[in-house]
Specification:
The complex is a heterodimer of chains A (262) and B (379). Chain A is an alpha/beta fold and 262 residues long. Chain A contains 8 helices and 11 strands. In chain A, strands 9-8-7-10-6-1-4-5-11 form a 9-stranded mixed beta sheet, with helices on both faces. In chain A, strands 2-3 form a two-stranded antiparallel ribbon. In chain A, a hairpin with a 3-residue loop joins strand 7 and strand 8. By secondary structure, chain B is α+β, with helices and mostly antiparallel strands. The chains are: A alpha/beta (262), B alpha+beta (379).
C-alpha cells in the first residue's frame, strides 16, 4: 500500500488576537504560532495506521515555507517515510483549486494507492482541496471520512453526514480520502522516531522543478479574487423570559421550536 | 551564539508539551489531591523514550543530551511538578551517578533499564543529620569477606518506594570527613534494605518521598560505585547536573503559574474591563514573564555547557537558585492575581506555590547555592 498524505502548516488563532493588516487582504501573523492543520494531523495518523496494518510506505506532501519543515519532520517522526515540500511564492494559495493543481502536479508521476488529507483547513476553511485534487488526478474520492477499511483493491470509507448520520461507500483504488477529526487518536512521536526522522529524505521543490507553469497556478489563473478581510462585529441580543416557571418553560419551548433549534 | 533550539530539539519540546498538556495536566490536580503516584504516566513517558534522552545510545539512550532532557523536564513540570520531580530525580541523580562513575558492567546492567524506563532510580544522600552538610553522613559501610555490610538510614528520598535501584552514600573511612565517603549501588530487593511509609508533604504530593533503612544490609564488593573514598567528589558532580534539572522543574512551575495568571487576567472583568488592562496587574505579569525568560536562559545555558563537556558548578547553582526563586515568586503573584480564587483548591495556582517551595530546598537550599556561587567567585 503506497499512501501520500497532504498536510498544511496553519496558524493557531486561538491564543493570539487576530489583526488584519492595513492592506485589508492579509492577516498579521507575527504573533501566531503555526502547526499542522488539525484534520491533517488525523490524516497523518490514519496513513501510519494503514501502513502498520497493511505494510507499504507513506509520503508526505506539503506546500509551505521553510519553517513548516518542523511539522513535516514530526509527521516523519510518527512513521511517514519521506517528504516533498513545495515552496514557491507564485502559487495563489488562497484558492483551493490552485493549491490542488500544484499538489496534483507534484503527485502525477508517483505511484500511489491512497491519498489522505484533512477534510478542511483551519485557516481558509474551504473544504475543497482534497476533492479538487481527486478531480485533477482523475481518481475516486470520499470526503469527511470517519473510518477507513482497506480491502483488496478497494477502500471502504465511512463518511460523516449531518445529524449524526454515517454513509458507507466503497471506492476502487487509487482514491483520495479527506479525513475528519476524531477518526483516530493521533500519537505522540517517540524520541527515537524524532531521531530517525532527521535522517529521512525531505526534498524541497519549486514549480519549475515540478514542471508546472506558474501562470496556471498563480493569481492570474485563479478565478477567486481576495477582496477584503475583516473581523466581524460581535452582535449580541438577550431576551429575558418572564413569568411563572410553567409559563417560562412554554415560552422557551416555543422559541426553540420557532427557531428550528429542536 | 545561537539561541534557537535545533529542529530535533523543537520536535522534542513539541512532543513532550503536547503529551504533558493533553495527558498529564488534566489529571495533575487529582494526583495532588489523592497523593497518587503517576504510574500510568511514567509508563507512557517510557514509551516516548523520555527517560532515554540524556544517555548515549550504547547504554540504551537516545544520545540527545542534557538540553533536550531539560526541555522535557520543564514541559512535564509545567503540567505536573510531582511527575517532574519523579522524572528529574530518576535521571539526574538516580541514573546519572551510575552513568558517570559506573564500571562498564555496572553501566550495562543498570543504565539501560533506567534509560528504557523499565525501572526507576533514586539517590540516597540526605540523612537526618546530614542535609546541607553531607560530611555529617552517619551511614556506614564495612568491607568483610568480599561483602559490604551497610547500616544506617536516609531521609527525604525521592522515588524511594518505587525505585528498582538506588545509589547511596556511606562512610567507608571513618574520621576522614568527606574523604571517607563512598557510593554504592543498591538493588531494590537487597536483604536488609527497607523503605518507610511515604511522607505527608506540603506539595509535590503525587511524588514518592520516603526514608531508607539499611539494617546489616549486605552488598557484593563490586556494588561499590567508582573508587572508595570518592563518594563526596562524585555527589558534587552529580548535583551539578541535578541542579540544572531542578532549575528546569522550577521553570516549568513558574511558566504554569504565569500561563494561569495571564489567562485569568484576560478573562476576569472588574470595573467594566479585564483586569489585564490595569497597570497594577500588567506590571506583575511583565515582571513574571521577564524573570521566567531570564531563568530559562540560565537553565538552558547550564544544560548547554554540560553538553559541551564543560564545568557547570557555578552556572548550575545560579540557574537553580534563580529559577527556584522565580518559581516561588511567580506562584505567589499568580495567587495574588487570582485574588480570593487563588487561595482556593479549585484553581491550580495554590498547588503551584506548594510545589514551587521545594525548589528552594531540594538539592541544596538557596543558601547553599549562594555559598557554592560565592566559592566559585573566589570568596
Amino acid at each position: 500500500m503506497k499512501s501520500i498524505v497532504c498536510i498544511k502548516y496553519v496558524p493557531d488563532t486561538s491564543e493570539a488576537e487576530v489583526k488584519v493588516n492595513p492592506d485589508g487582504k492579509t492577516v498579521d501573523d507575527s504573533r501566531f504560532s503555526f502547526d499542522i492543520n488539525d484534520a491533517d494531523n488525523y490524516a497523518v495518523e490514519e496513513s501510519v495506521l494503514i501502513k502498520e496494518d497493511k505494510g507499504g510506505e507513506v509520503d508526505v506532501l506539503s506546500i509551505g515555507p521553510k519553517q513548516s519543515e518542523v511539522m513535516i519532520r514530526m509527521a516523519m517522526a510518527k512513521g511517514c517515510d519521506r517528504a516533498v515540500r513545495v515552496e514557491d511564492d507564485r502559487i495563489a494559495d488562497h484558492d483551493p483549486l490552485m493549491v490542488a493543481k500544484v499538489l496534483a502536479g507534484a503527485i502525477k508521476d508517483k505511484e500511489f494507492d491512497l491519498i489522505l488529507t484533512g477534510c478542511w483547513a483551519d485557516d481558509y476553511g474551504h473544504m475543497s482541496t482534497g476533492v479538487a485534487l481527486a478531480e485533477y488526478l482523475g481518481v475516486n474520492h470520499a470526503s469527511m471520512v470517519k473510518k477507513v477499511e482497506v480491502l483488496d483493491g478497494k477502500v471502504r470509507a465511512h463518511r460523516e453526514l449531518e445529524g449524526g448520520l454515517m454513509e458507507v461507500v466503497e471506492l476502487e483504488l487509487p482514491a483520495v480520502l479527506t479525513i475528519q477529526t476524531g477518526i483516530n487518536e493521533p500519537r505522540y512521536a517517540p524520541i527515537r522516531g524524532i531521531r530517525q526522522a532527521q535522517k529521512k529524505e525531505l526534498n524541497v521543490v519549486s514549480l519549475d522543478d515540478l514542471g508546472i507553469d506558474p501562470a496556471e497556478v498563480g493569481s492570474e489563473a485563479s478565478q477567486v479574487v481576495l477582496e477584503n478581510l475583516y473581523i466581524p462585529e460581535v452582535e449580541s441580543a438577550a431576551e429575558f423570559i418572564e413569568g411563572e416557571p410553567d409559563e417560562k418553560a412554554d415560552k422557551l419551548a416555543s422559541i426553540l421550536v420557532k427557531g428550528g433549534l429542536v | 551564539m545561537n539561541f534557537s533550539l535545533s529542529e530535533s530539539q523543537l520536535l522534542i519540546q513539541k512532543t513532550v508539551r503536547d503529551f504533558a498538556q493533553n495527558e498529564l495536566a488534566p489529571i495533575a490536580a487529582d494526583l495532588d489531591k489523592e497523593a497518587r503516584f503517576p504510574h500510568e504516566i511514567i509508563k507512557q513517558m517510557a514509551e516516548l523514550d523520555l527517560f532515554a534522552l540524556p544517555y548515549s545510545e550504547e547504554y540504551g539512550g537516545t544520545g540527545d543530551g542534557c538540553l533536550p532532557y531539560v526541555v522535557a523536564v520543564e514541559e512535564i513540570s509545567r503540567a505536573c511538578a510531582s511527575t517532574g520531580i519523579t522524572y528529574a530525580a530518576h535521571c539526574s541523580i538516580g541514573t546519572d551517578p551510575i552513568y558517570l562513575f559506573g564500571t562498564e558492567k555496572q553501566k550495562q546492567k543498570w543504565v539501560g533499564p533506567c534509560a528504557r524506563g523499565e525501572m526507576l532510580a533514586a539517590f540516597g544522600l540526605t540523612e537526618p543529620n546530614a542535609g546541607s552538610d553531607a560530611g555529617g553522613t552517619k551511614t556506614t559501610a564495612v568491607l568483610k569477606n568480599s561483602e559490604w555490610l551497610i547500616n544506617g538510614s536516609k531521609c527525604f528520598i525521592t522515588n524511594a518506594t518505587h525505585a528498582g535501584v538506588i545509589v547511596i552514600s556511606a562512610v567507608t573511612e571513618p574520621g576522614q570527613g568527606t574523604k571517607g565517603i563512598s557510593s554504592f549501588i543498591v538493588p531494590r530487593d537487597t536483604a536488609g534494605f527497607s523503605v518507610s511509609e511515604p511522607y505527608d508533604k506540603l506539595g509535590l504530593k503525587a511524588s514518592d518521598t520516603a526514608e531508607l533503612y539499611f539494617d546489616d544490609m549486605r552488598l557484593p564488593e563490586d556494588n561499590l560505585l567508582g573508587k572508595r573514598g570518592e563518594g563526596f567528589k562524585q555527589l558534587l558532580k552529580v548535583l551539578d547536573g541535578g541542579r540544572i534539572s531542578i532549575g528546569a522543574l522550577a521553570l516549568g512551575i513558574a511558566q504554569a503559574s504565569f500561563d494561569a495568571a495571564l489567562a485569568y487576567a484576560r478573562e476576569r472583568r472588574q470595573f467594566g474591563q479585564p483586569i489585564s488592562k490595569f497597570q497594577a496587574i500588567q506590571f506583575k505579569l511583565a515582571d513574571m514573564a521577564t524573570s521566567i525568560e531570564m531563568a530559562r536562559m540560565a537553565v538552558y545555558r547550564a544544560a548547554w555547557l554540560k553538553d559541551q563537556g564543560r564545568a557547570t558548578t557555578r552556572e548550575s547553582s545560579m540557574a537553580k537558585l534563580y529559577a527556584s526563586e522565580t518559581a516561588v515568586k511567580a506562584a505567589l503573584e499568580a495567587i495574588q492575581i487570582f485574588g480570593g480564587y487563588g487561595y482556593m483548591k479549585e484553581y491550580p495556582v495554590e498547588r503551584y506555590l506548594r510545589d514551587a517551595k521545594l525548589m528552594e530546598i531540594g538539592e541544596g537550599t538557596s543558601e547553599i547555592q549562594r555559598l557554592v556561587i560565592a566559592r566559585q567567585l573566589g570568596c
